[in-house]
Design goal:
The protein is α+β, with helices and mostly antiparallel strands. Helices cover 34% and strands 23% of the residues. The strands form four sheets. It has a seven-stranded mixed β-sheet with strand order 2-1-10-9-7-6-5, with helices on both faces. A four-stranded antiparallel β-sheet has the order 12-13-14-15. A two-stranded antiparallel sheet has the order 3-4. The longest helix has 23 residues. The protein is globular and about 60 Å long. It starts with 6 loop residues before the first strand and ends in a 42-residue tail after the last helix.
């Protein structure tokens, strides 16, 4: 069951530079995990190669959350596993732990390390012309800190407690990426999601080792391609689901999964132009400029990268109730987005070239938009 309000995930960080909290409570909403799984996924990248399978892949990843996680409420709200999750066989539990490990690795990077554009190395290897020696270990993710420099990360997950052996392995492991753009990453950490007992809460342990492995690789990353690759999955989602206007955002609703995702309209326009016309030069700076323009709203309402993710996951008993849902269960930040719809028009002044996506021509969101407009509520145009 998902309650109103966030759950708290206890994190333990070791061997990090000064300034990274050693012990911290990460505040997590269900849609935070869903968004993390979407933006860190491997498959939603090459539409020509994967097509609609990419969309099904991320739907599969996101669907594990309402199936296998619960928000406890005693006395501090925590994330625990459902009875269904505890009944999985060992192989299925390993896959769930792997999935949760990736999501929490992203949240830790974004929240506690100020990392932006965090994504999977393997997913974008072709975009960066990266090659790895067969069988060679390397980190899973990389991203850019908001005040400069790169971070690399490896995600792990355990269905049981974090063993002394695994913690020792994480402390002694070597860095597998020695440099990005010729600069040594300030942080190259491993994180592991784990559960102290079958009914215990989810926890996260993160460790940042110092020494690089002898065969560590050097990633040659183009900042503009980095940003394009980060937002590409949204283009893929919109290609397979009709996009709609919602205030300053373009959204797509996947009602079968009770999930809505979106992106700030001017960011989408610039990314779409880069992807379709190959106008990637200056993309990173353009996106950062657009995000800075909307920063006050992003900090008050949604995510700092200009994306939106919402879920309308209820307990099983609520899923069978007909009629309008209690709007009080909706996250406050989405209420704010709903109230501000069409109040801020500055994005519409963005220059639209011939052939570009013109967001003004998209239909307005109305009817049931999961996590934003409850069932039965209509938005009049």
């Amino acid at each position: 069951m998902f309650f109103k309000g966030p759950a708290h995930v206890r994190t333990d960080a070791a061997l990090f530079p000064a300034g990274v909290p050693v012990e911290q409570e990460l505040s997590v909403m269900p849609e935070d995990l869903a968004r993390a799984l979407f933006i860190t996924g491997r498959a939603p990248y090459d539409r020509a190669k994967h097509g609609r399978s990419s969309t099904y892949e991320w739907c599969h990843r996101v669907a594990v959350l309402p199936a296998y996680l619960s928000w406890s409420d005693d006395p501090v709200r925590r994330i625990t596993r459902t009875d269904l999750a505890r009944e999985l066989d060992p192989s299925e539990k390993s896959m769930l732990s792997y999935t949760l490990g990736q999501a929490m690795c992203q949240l830790f990077a974004e929240r506690q390390l100020s990392v932006q554009f965090f994504m999977h190395v393997a997913r974008y290897a072709s975009a960066y012309d990266l090659t790895f020696t067969p069988g060679q270990s390397r980190a899973d993710f990389f991203g850019e800190r908001t005040y400069g420099g790169y971070v690399v990360a490896e995600a792990k997950g355990r269905s049981g407690p974090l063993t002394k052996e695994l913690r020792k392995t994480m402390e002694e492991q070597k860095r597998t990426i020695k440099a990005i753009k010729g600069e040594t990453p300030e942080i190259a950490y491993a994180s592991a999601v784990h559960f102290s007992s079958p009914h215990g809460p989810m926890r996260l342990t993160a460790i940042d080792p110092e020494e690089a492995a002898p065969r560590a690789v050097d990633l040659s990353v183009d900042p503009d391609l980095h940003v394009l690759a980060y937002y590409t999955p949204f283009l893929d989602a919109f290609a397979h689901q009709e996009p709609l206007r919602l205030g300053d955002y373009v959204v797509a609703s996947f009602t079968a999964f009770d999930v809505t995702l979106g992106i700030l309209a001017p960011v989408l326009q610039r990314v779409e132009r880069a992807a379709r016309r190959n106008e990637t030069e200056g993309l990173r700076d353009d996106i950062l400029r657009l995000l800075a323009r909307h920063r006050p709203r992003l900090e008050r309402t949604l995510y700092r990268d200009g994306t939106l993710f919402a879920a309308d996951w209820k307990s099983s008993e609520n899923r069978h109730r007909s009629g309008r849902q209690d709007s009080g269960t909706l996250p406050d930040f989405l209420h704010e987005a709903f109230r501000s719809m069409n109040q801020e028009e500055d994005w519409r002044a963005e220059h639209v070239e011939e052939g570009d996506l013109d967001v003004r021509n998209l239909p307005a969101a109305r009817g049931y938009v999961p996590g934003i407009f409850p069932r039965g509520e209509l938005l009049e145009g």
